[in-house]
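User: tokens in, sequence out, please.
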């Protein structure tokens, strides 16, 4: 079942075309990663899906949608505790508690603003997973996470997939996206590729606007 269908999406901001004739789908049990350089329109794509920017074209979302933006803004003068932020607007407190425990933050009594960047990201991911959605949109969720937390997050993505959820994730890490995803979207205003993960120098050269060479491995004889 397709949880997200986008057909002929155009976004123009301040007189500049940011996205042009974008078409893509996300199905149940599928992780789709969006790759591209800075300014390619990746974040704008997610913002269009949740209705934060005007667009032309068709966006169909089936089921409940959750969105984890790249910028997480909390007023530093409001003394939110870690629990205040973690359980804000969530549907399933047990889910949030389980992920906070996995991240080593369950029962943390400090203020959210005093956490490190990585700890803040873990709290927000736990909250994000507790809203009970069918389709999860994530904008560079690995930002601020150390190697151990990144591996833990990969496990979470696999759990979402196995439970029939859909994930559309913006990523700057090509290697990680190719290894974890069921499909990738190479985007730079237009879609250069949408399909199974593969390292194609021609596609990546077009997407990133630079010359990408084939990978060669040297084998001992």
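Assistant: Sequence out:
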């Amino acid at each position: 079942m397709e949880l997200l269908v986008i057909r002929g999406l155009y976004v123009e901001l301040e007189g500049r075309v940011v996205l042009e004739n974008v078409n893509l789908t996300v199905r149940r049990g599928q992780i789709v990663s969006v790759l591209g350089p800075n300014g390619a329109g990746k974040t704008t794509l997610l913002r269009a899906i949740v209705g934060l920017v005007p667009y032309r074209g068709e966006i169909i979302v089936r089921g409940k949608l959750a969105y984890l933006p790249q910028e997480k803004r909390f007023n530093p003068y409001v003394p939110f505790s870690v629990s205040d932020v973690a359980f804000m607007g969530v549907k399933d407190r047990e889910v949030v508690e389980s992920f906070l425990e996995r991240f080593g933050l369950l029962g943390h009594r400090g203020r959210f603003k005093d956490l490190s960047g990585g700890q803040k990201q873990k709290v927000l991911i736990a909250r994000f997973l507790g809203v009970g959605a069918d389709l999860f949109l994530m904008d560079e969720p690995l930002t601020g996470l150390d190697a151990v937390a990144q591996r833990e997050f990969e496990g979470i993505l696999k759990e979402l997939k196995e439970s029939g959820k859909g994930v559309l994730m913006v990523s700057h890490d090509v290697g990680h996206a190719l290894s974890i995803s069921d499909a990738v979207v190479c985007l730079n205003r237009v879609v250069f590729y949408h399909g199974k993960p593969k390292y194609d120098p021609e596609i990546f050269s077009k997407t990133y606007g630079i010359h990408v060479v084939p990978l060669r491995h040297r084998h001992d004889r």
